[in-house]
Amino acid sequence: MTTAMKKPTGDWQPADIKAELIKKYPAKIARKRAKQIIINEAQENETPEIMANVRTIPGIITMRGCTYAGCKGVIMGPTRDIVNLVHGPIGCSFYAWLTRRNQTDAGPDGDNFMTYCLSTDMQEQDIIFGGEKKLAAAIQEAYDLFHPRSIAVFATCPVGLIGDDIHTVAATMKEKFGDCNVYAFSCEGYKGVSQSAGHHIANNQVFRHIVGENDAEKPGKYKINLLGEYNIGGDGFEIDRIFEKCGITCISTFSGNSTYDQFASAHTVDLNAVMCHRSINYVADMLETKFGIPWIKVNFIGADSTAKSLRKIAQYFDDQALIDRVEEVIEEEMPPVLAARQEVRPRTEGKTAMIFIGGSRAHHYSFLFSEMGMKTISAGHEFAHRDDYEGRRILPHLKVDADSRNIEEIEVNPDPTRYQPRKSAEEIEELQKKGVPFNSYEGLMPDMEQGSIIIDDLNQHEAEKLVEMLKPDLFCAGIKEKYSVQKLGVPMKQLHSYDSGGPYAGFQGAINFYQEIDRLVNSKVWSYMKAPWQENPQLSATYNWE
Amino acid sequence: MTTAMKKPTGDWQPADIKAELIKKYPAKIARKRAKQIIINEAQENETPEIMANVRTIPGIITMRGCTYAGCKGVIMGPTRDIVNLVHGPIGCSFYAWLTRRNQTDAGPDGDNFMTYCLSTDMQEQDIIFGGEKKLAAAIQEAYDLFHPRSIAVFATCPVGLIGDDIHTVAATMKEKFGDCNVYAFSCEGYKGVSQSAGHHIANNQVFRHIVGENDAEKPGKYKINLLGEYNIGGDGFEIDRIFEKCGITCISTFSGNSTYDQFASAHTVDLNAVMCHRSINYVADMLETKFGIPWIKVNFIGADSTAKSLRKIAQYFDDQALIDRVEEVIEEEMPPVLAARQEVRPRTEGKTAMIFIGGSRAHHYSFLFSEMGMKTISAGHEFAHRDDYEGRRILPHLKVDADSRNIEEIEVNPDPTRYQPRKSAEEIEELQKKGVPFNSYEGLMPDMEQGSIIIDDLNQHEAEKLVEMLKPDLFCAGIKEKYSVQKLGVPMKQLHSYDSGGPYAGFQGAINFYQEIDRLVNSKVWSYMKAPWQENPQLSATYNWE
Amino acid sequence: MLLRHTPQEITERQALTINPAKTCQPIGAMYAALGIHGCLPHSHGSQGCCAYHRSTLTRHYKEPISASTSSFTEGASVFGGSANMLQAINNIFTVYQPEVIAVHTTCLSETIGDDLPQIKKKALDEGKIPAGKYVISASTPSYAGSHVTGFSNMVTSMAAMAAPTGKKNGKINVIPGWVEPTDMEEIKRLVKLVGVSSILFPDTSGVLNGPLSGEYKMFPEGGTTVAELQATGDSLATLALGDWCSGDAARYLDKTHKVPCQVLDMPFGLKATDRFIDALRTTAGVNVPEEIGLERGQLVDMISDMHQYLYKKKVALAGDPDQLIAITEFLVSLDMCPVHIVTGTPGKKFERRIKELTEGMGYEVNVKAKGDLFLLHQWIKNEPVDLLICNTYGKYIARDEDLPFVRWGFPILDRQGHQYFPTVGYKGGLRLLEKILGVLMDRKDRDDSESKFELVL
Amino acid sequence: MLLRHTPQEITERQALTINPAKTCQPIGAMYAALGIHGCLPHSHGSQGCCAYHRSTLTRHYKEPISASTSSFTEGASVFGGSANMLQAINNIFTVYQPEVIAVHTTCLSETIGDDLPQIKKKALDEGKIPAGKYVISASTPSYAGSHVTGFSNMVTSMAAMAAPTGKKNGKINVIPGWVEPTDMEEIKRLVKLVGVSSILFPDTSGVLNGPLSGEYKMFPEGGTTVAELQATGDSLATLALGDWCSGDAARYLDKTHKVPCQVLDMPFGLKATDRFIDALRTTAGVNVPEEIGLERGQLVDMISDMHQYLYKKKVALAGDPDQLIAITEFLVSLDMCPVHIVTGTPGKKFERRIKELTEGMGYEVNVKAKGDLFLLHQWIKNEPVDLLICNTYGKYIARDEDLPFVRWGFPILDRQGHQYFPTVGYKGGLRLLEKILGVLMDRKDRDDSESKFELVL
Question: Dihedral of CA A41/A45/A50/A55: which sign?
Fold first, then answer.
C-alpha cells in the first residue's frame, strides 16, 4: 500500500493516536507520557517542546538500558587494545560480552581483547567486606596474563553502594606497573536515567586519562577525529575507506575499531567531525576548550548525507585540492548508489517506517529511508535529550534535573602549552557564512513530516499500539522489541546491531541498506501467517478426479 | 565367559546343532543342506567331504551375490584407470558404485575413474530392438569425455538374453580408437551359482586382453605379483609398505589399487604370490602355463601368517640377502604387534567368533582370531569350492556340474616367444622339499578345531539359529547380515568391507584388528538392551528423603 | 579432486549415463513391500539383484532387510523361472512363514517373459500357498522408469488387494509415497491429530526403525495389515501424496472401486503441508485443531526469523520427482533460488512442474528428468551454488566444489537421523530449515574474517 | 586467532574470571518466572539488568521476552527501592494485567537490603494488588551462585505458592529444571505416555516457542497455572530433575507439605532417562508402555550401530551442573571420554559427582566448578580433544583450535533448533547422538585423504 498522498498516520488523527497510546495508563503516568509524545507541528525554527532524558517509569516495560551499558558497552567496548575489567558480580560483564557487533580489525597479530570477558565476579564476602583487594588482585592477574597497554575498570551497581574506591585502586596499579595506564569508570547502572549518563562518564574519563597522552605528530594533511561512530556491522570500515579515498586522515575514531593510542593522539587533529553527538559531544566540547579544535556535525548514514558531510569537511579545510578530490570521489561513488536506489524504489516507494533507537540514530536513518521513498511516520529516541529532538540551539533553555546533576561535568580550561585554535574567530565566521555549521546540529523534529508522531523513551505498550493502529511496513528498534513487533506481522529491523547486516554507512552501506530493506518490506514470509483453513474455513470437499 | 576348556560348541552336541539348523526345512532342502553343514572331524589329511559351489536354494535367504558382482564388483572394480561401463539397466551399475571400500591412490593427477558410475541405462526399446548401437555410442561418449587408457564393458542379465554381441562391439571400438583397449565381460548375473563364476570370467578376460600387453622390463630385483588382494580398507597399502621395506617389488596386484599397466606387465615377474586363491587362482595357473611363472599361496591376514608368507617368498628367491632382510623386517615389525596383542588379550582370550565370508577369507581370519586367543567355533564360505574347504589336493576328485561347465575355461599354451620357466623342475623340487608349497593351499577344515561346525553358503535362517544356540561373542559376515545378528545382542563385524575400519592385513593391520575386535567384544553397549523396569519389574516405590 | 575427470564444458550425451540420480525398479518394490505387515519381499531374478537391494536398503536404514530371491541360474533363464518361483514360495512359507509374499520381477524375468499371475495360480493349484496367506506381485522391469516406478507399481499391487464389502468404513486412505518410516509415523500423527481415521499404506514405520532389544524379528510389529489393505476399497476417499509414488494406486482405487482420490504433493515444506492438512479437513469434513495451527505457526515463525540467511541463496538439487517438486516449492517460498535440479526418473511433466514452481523467479532454472549427477556437477561448475541438497552421492560433488551440503533423499549412507526425525509436515519443515541453516551458518562461521566473525546469528 | 592472548601455560587465578561459564542469578529467575502462566517477571534493580536479561533470552529463543523493572535511580539506591516497586506493581497490574508478578532482586536491591515480602505486604495494604492476582518474589543476589541458583530460587518461590487442601490429588509434581521449552513439552509427553497425571513447573513450553500468526500475546497459552502451583501441595510425590535447578523446590514441598520427593538427574541420555522413567513407574505404580520401550530401543540401536565413531573420542564440556552431570554420564556410556569439564557455578559436590561418573575411565578428568572458558581453552591447548560441547561462546575456542563443536546449553545465540527439538528423553538422546556424530563425521569427510574418503559411514 502507498500512503504517499495521505498524511503520515493515514486515516488516524494524530491526536486520537496519542489518546489511544496513553489511555490505559494511570492518570499520573498518562500526564507524564503526554509530554513525551509529540505530534510534530515543527514550523521553521519553531519546534514544540518535548520532555526527554527523564526517568523511566517503574514497571513500564522500557527499551532503555543502564549507565554501565552506555559506558562500557557503547563507548569503551569498541576499543580493541584496552583490557576491560568489570568490577562487580559476573552478570554485567557477561551480558556485554561480544553482544554489540562493533567490529574491529586488529590484523593478524595486533592486540585484541574484545573477545575476552573479564570480571572480578564479586561474591557475598566482597560485598560485605569490600572488593578493593580483589579488584587490585584481578588487575594484577590481567596485567600478568596480557601485559596490555591499558586496563579500564568499570563499576557495576554494588560497587558504588559499598564504597569501593576504584579510582585509587586503579591509580595505585598504574603507578605500580609503570607501562600500563589503568583508570576506572564509576558507571554504576543506577546512575542517570539511561545509557546517556554512561556516555558522559566515559567521555570524561577518556578525556581525563587518555586524550593528550601522545603528542607525537601523525602524518596527514587533513587530520580529523570522527566522534560518535561505533563501527557497528562495519560502518566505520566503510567511512574509513571513503576518508582514505578523499585523502582525509582520521586520527581517532570515538570509538569504533579504535585503539588506546588513537585516543591519546586525538588532540593532534584540526577538526572533530561529530556523528552521534548524543553520545560524544562532551568530548568534542572539551577538545575545543582545551586544545582549540573546532567541531562540526556530520552524518554518514545515507549516501546524500555522506556526500554532504564530506563537502562540509572539505569546506572546513578550505583547500581546493581537497574540495575537488571530494567531488571526484562523490562522482565516482554515487552512480552505483543511484542504480541500487532505482532498482529497489519501485518496491519501496511510499512504504512506511517507524524508528525508535539511540539518541540521534533515528534521525540519521530517517534520511536513508527517504532516499528509498519511504516515509518515517513515527520516530523517537531511547536516551536522547531535548536538543536531540529540537536542535542544539535550545540547550540554553534546558533545565538540568537532579539525575543529570549527579553526573560529573568536568571543568576544562585551555591547555597552557597545547591550546592552539585551528581557526581564527574570523575564519570561523567566514566559514559559518559559507554554511559550515560549527557547534550545532538540528533536532529530529524539524526533519520529520507534519503530523508525524515523535515519542521519547517509547515503551512496549505504546509500540504495540502504534503498530496495531498504523500498521507500518517496517519497524526499527532493538533486539528486545524485535519479535513482539514481528509477531504482529510487521518486519522489524534492528538498528542498534543491524541484526546480522551492515555496513549501512557511507555509499556502499547505503546500497546494502536499500537491498536489506527491500528484502524486509517485500518478503513473501509475511503472507504465510494464515493457514488455508483460516482463510477459507468453509468445508466443501473437492476432489480432482485426476 | 571363557570357553577355552570346553568344546567349541559349549554344551551343545554338534550333531544336535546340525539337526536344529535343518529341521525346519522341507525334506529335499534339508537333505541338500545336510551335505553343506559339516561337523569338523578333520584328521591329518583326511577331511570330510563338503558340498560347495552348488546352486542356492530359491526362496532361502542367501548371503550370495551374482556373477556380475564377482566380475565387475570384486575383480575389475579396484582398477582405477580402466573406465568400467556397465551395459544394462541402470541398477547393476548403481549398486556397484563405490560400495566396496577397495581403496586406491591415484596421486594428485593420476587417472581415477572409480568414483564414476557409467551405464547404458538400457530402456525398453533397447531390450526389444537390441542394445548394441547404444553400447557403441556409450563407449564413444565415454572415450570422448575421458580418453582413458582402457574401457571395460560388463553385461548384465538381459544382455545375454537378447543376444547383444558386446565382444564384437568392444573389438570394433578398440579398433576405431587405436589408443584405447576396449573389451567386454559376459558376466550376466544368472551365470554360475555365485560371485565365483564372475571371478573366473574376469580372470579370463584380463588374461586374454591385458596381461602381456607390456613387455617393458620393470626395475626390481625380486619381482612378484600379488594375486587376490583387493585393498579393502587399505590392506594393500600395508602389504605394499611391507614389500617395499623388504625390497620386494610388487609389479602387479590383482586387483587392489591397480592400474591397467600393472596387469599388462604381470607376465614380467618371477613369482606369483596368491592370497585369495578362490578368486584368482585361474590367472595364476594361466601365467604359469603361458609364461612359466610359478605361484605359491600366501596370506597376509594375521601377523604370524604375514611373517610366514614373507619367509616363503624369500625362500623362493633363494637369496640370503633377501632372507636376511625379511628376518630384519619381521624383527622390527613384530614387537608392537605383540605388545598390542598382549594389551587386548586379557579381554579377548577365550572369546568365540563365527566367520562366514568370501571364498578363503574366513580361513584367513581364523588365524587372526587365534592370535588374540579367540576361538572360531563355526565358519564357512559364501562362494567357495570344495578345495577351499578341503585343500587343493582334492581338485582332481572334483566333479564339474552344469553350472560350472557353463563358465568358459580358456585353453592356454606356453607362449612361443615369452615362455620361460623361472625355476627348473629340480629347483622347484628342491624348494618344495624346503617347504615352499607350490601350486597348493590348505583348506579351511583342517585348520578348524575338532567339533567346530563348517557351513557352506550359510543362510539367514541358519545364521539366526546358530547365534541363538551358541551365543558367540562375535559374528563376522557381510552388510546384509550385520543388523539381524546385532538385534540378537551379538556384535557383528563385516569382513567384506571391514565396516569403516582397516587395514587389517600385515603387521599394522593386525594391531588395528586386535583393537577393533577388543572394542566390539567388550563394548558396554550390549549391556543396555534391557531397561531397568524389565530387569526389576516389581513395583516398590522408593523415595530418597534427601 | 574426487571427480577429477568431470569437465566444465557440457557435451550432449545420447547413450551414456554417468553417476545416476536413480536406480532400478525392483528396489522400490522391495521397500514398498516392507511396508506390509508380515511380508517377505521376493525378487524374481538372479540372486544378485536381491543382494544388491538388501545391501543398499541396509546401509540406508542400518536395519536388517529380509528378502528372498528366485536365484535364477543359466538354466532358469533359458527355460523360465516358474520352477524356481514355485520352489521359492514353498520354501518361504515353510521356513519363514510370512503373511504375505510380495513378488516383484527384474529385467531378467521380464526379458524372458515370466508370467507371475500364472505362476501364482499354479502355486495355488499345487497348494503351495497356505490358507490365509497371500502372494502378491508387481511387474517391475528394471529397464523402464526408476526405483520410484517400482515403488509405485508395488503400491498399486497393494491397492489391488482391496476387497470392498460395499459398506463404507468411514476411513480415508493415505498413500505416503516413498518417504522414511519416521515420515510415515509423522503423517499418521498428523492425520490422527486432525481427527481423521485412516488407512496408511505402505507403512514401514515400526519395520525399518526398530529397537535393539536382544531379539530379532524378521517380521516386526509395523506395517499395513492385509485386513487394512483389503479395507481400502471401503474407504471414503484416498489422498495420494506424490503423483509419482502414489498416484497410480489412488487412481486404481478410484477407477476400480469408486474410492474418490486426490493426488497431492508430498507434504514437505509449508505450502504442501498446508494443502495436505486442508485436504484432510475438507475430505473428512473436520476442523483443524489448534495444535496443528501451533506447529504451523512455529514453522512460519522460524522462516521469518531466519529469512535473511536464506534470501536469494542458490541451491542445486538432485533426487526423486515427488521430493524435488515439494522441496523446490518450499525453497521458493523461503525466497531461496533452486537453480539446478535433476532427477534420474524420466518424465517431461516433472520438468514442466518445476518450471511452473520457479516461474517469476527472474532466472531460467536448469532442470532435467532422466538427468544424472554428472550433469548436475557440470551445471554447478558453470553456475556455482550456495547449497547442495542431494542423497549421499552428492558428497563427492560437495567436497570437490566445497559446497554446503544437506543430505536428503535416498540413499543416505553416511549420516544418521533420517531414520528417526521426520522431514514431512510442519515439524519436518522445521527440521529441513534447521539443517539448511546449519550448513549455511557453519560455512559462514568458517569463512567470516575475524573482524566479521559473529557471536549472534 | 580470535582468542589470541590465551596462553597454553596455566597460571592460578584468585581474583579474575575470564570468559565466564555462568552468568548471574536474576536471569535464571526471569526464565523460571516465564514458566508461570500469565506471569510478568519483574526485576527489582536498575533498568540495565532487565534490559540485559531480556536481550539474552531473546537472542536465545528468538521470541519476545516481556519483563519489567523497578528502574532504580541514584535516589532509589540511597533511599531504598520500595517506592519504585510499589509504583511498578500498580503500573503493571493496570497496564499489562498479568495474573502474577514474579519479582526477583538484583545485586543492587540486595546490597541496599530491600525487603520484598515487606514491600509486597505494603502493596497489599495499599490495595495495589487486585483481587485474585499474585505477587511472588525470590531473593536472587547476583553475587552468589549463578543463573542456575537464581532459577532454583524462583522455582522454590513457585513451590511456595502451594496451598494444600489436605486432599491428595493423585498427581506427581515434576520439576524439569532449566531445560528448553521443547524439553518441557517432551517431559510432559513422556510422563503422559507412562500414564502418570502430573504438574510440571515451571513450564515454558507454549510460552517461548510460540507461533507467528499475526497476533502478539504478552501472555501466551502456556505456563503452569496458579491453580496448578497451589495444587502441588496435594500431590503424591515430587520428582526433581536436576539437584541444582530443582532440588530445593522439591525438598521445600517435602519438608513443608510432606510431599515426598526424589531428586534425579536431568533425563539427558540413556541411563538418566531410564532412571526418570523408572522413578515415574515406581512412584505412580504404573507399567511402562511398549511405546517407551520402543523409543528406548531405538536409542540403544543407534548407539550400537555407531559405536565405532564414538569409542574413545575425547570431549571437552562447559555448561551448567545438572546438564554436565547428565551429559557426562551419557558420553561415558557411549565409551566416549569427557576429559575437560567446567561449570561456572560454584560447588565442590559437582566436581565430586563428575569424578565418580568418570571413575575407571583410565584417565584423570579435568573438572572445575567456578571455572571459566578461559581455563577450559587452556586445558584443551594442553590436551587436545576431538569434540567440544558448550554454549555458543564455545565457537571462539572451536574456531581457534579447529574443533568439531556441538552447541548445547545456554545461551545458544547462533543456531536454530534448540527451540523445537528436545534433547531430553530417549528421542532427545537420539538427537544428541545425531549432532555429535554429525560433527565428527563432517570432520572425517573434510580430513580424510582422497584414498580414504568414504561413501558409507
Answer: positive
* CB-based contact C20 B119, cutoff 8 Å: yes
Does A112 score more than 60 pLDDT?
yes
- Active-site residue, selected from the candidate residues B66, B246, B303, B477: B66
Gap from B264 CA to chain D (nearest CA, Å): 23
Q: Which long-range contacts (CB under 8 A, 24 or more apart) does A93-98 make?
A: A93/A117, A93/A118, A93/A119, A93/D17, A93/D20, A94/A119, A94/D20, A94/D22, A94/D23, A94/D24, A95/D23, A95/D52, A95/D53, A95/D55, A95/D56, A96/A68, A96/A69, A96/A72, A96/D52, A97/C455, A97/D19, A97/D393, A98/C455, A98/D393
Question: Confidence class of residue B6 from pLDDT cuts 50, 70 and 90?
Answer: low
Is the CB of residue C452 less than 8 Å away from at least one CB of chain A?
A: yes
Confidence at B43, pLDDT banded by 50, 70, 90 = low
Amino acid at A330: I
Catalytic residues of A: 66, 69, 100, 199
Contact B154/C at CB under 8 A: no
Contact C456 D421 (CB under 8 A): no
Task: For residues D394 and A327, give the distance between their C-alpha atoms in angstroms, rounded to a whole number.
Answer: 47
d(CA A339, CA B433): 92
Q: Does C305 touch chain A (CB under 8 A)?
A: yes
User: Could you give the CA distance from residue C45 to residue B190 in angstroms, rounded to a whole number?
Assistant: 8
Output DSSP code: residue B72: I
Give the closest-approach CA distance of A363 to chain D in angstroms. 23
Q: Does D touch C (3+ CB pairs < 8 Å)?
A: yes
Alpha-carbon distance of B170 to B189, in angstroms, equals 20
Residues 230-249 of A with CB under 8 A from C: 234, 237
Question: With an 8 Å Cβ cutoff, is D248 touching chain B?
Answer: no
Report chain C residues whose CB lies below 8 A from the CB of A486: 304-305
- The reported pLDDT for the residue numbered B356 is 98
Q: Give the B window 2-41 contacts with C, CB below 8 Å.
A: 24-26, 29
The answer to whether B137 contacts C90, with C-beta atoms less than 8 Å apart, is no
- pLDDT (0 to 100) of residue B2: 38
C304's grid cell: 521469518
Distance from CA of B161 to the nearest CA of C (A): 7
pLDDT at position D413 = 98
Q: Running along chain C, 457 residues long, what does each successive block of 10 average in pLDDT?
A: 98 98 98 98 97 98 98 93 97 98 98 96 97 98 98 98 97 98 98 97 97 96 98 98 98 98 98 98 95 98 98 98 98 98 97 97 96 98 98 98 98 97 98 98 98 97
Band (pLDDT 50/70/90 cuts) for residue A14 is confident
Please state, rounded to an integer, the average pLDDT across all residues of chain D.
97
- Regarding chains B and A, contact by 3 or more CB pairs under 8 A is answered as no
Q: Over range D97-107, report the average pLDDT.
A: 98
Residue of A8, A11, A17, A13 whose CA lies nearest to A350: A8
Give the residue ranges of DSSP H helices in B194-265: 195-209, 235-246, 260-264
CB A89 within 8 A of CB D143: yes
Let me know if B199 is a catalytic residue.
yes
Residue A254: helix, strand or coil by DSSP? strand
Contacts of D131 (CB under 8 A, 6+ apart): none
Helix (H, G, I), strand (E, B) or coil at D52: helix
Cβ of B109 under 8 Å from any chain D Cβ?
no
Q: What is the mean pLDDT of residues B251-278?
A: 97
CA distance C332 to C311: 10
Tell me, yes or no, if A416 comes closer than 8 A to chain C by beta carbon: no
H helix or E strand, kind and range, residue C68: strand C68-69
Check if B532 contacts C (Cβ < 8 Å).
no
Residue A10 has pLDDT above 90, yes or no: no
